Amino acid sequence: MNEDIPKFFNDDGTEFNPDLIPKPDLCISCSKDGLSEQEDFLCNMIRADQQGEAEFECGAYGQKCK
Description:
Elements: E1 8-9, E2 15-16, H1 25-28, H2 37-49
Antiparallel strand pairs: 1-2
């Protein structure tokens, strides 16, 4: 078991795999996408929190420079 890989848990305490949560287009075009492990962790939590919502919103979004 690799202890370096962070574990993710829902509000009810059940573990989930963030790789199974679709990444919205907004995330793909964000300057923070893949920036660091810490940013990826925060982004995964934001996406997990909004699963099943009609519209995805992120207050930390910053568009990638072209």
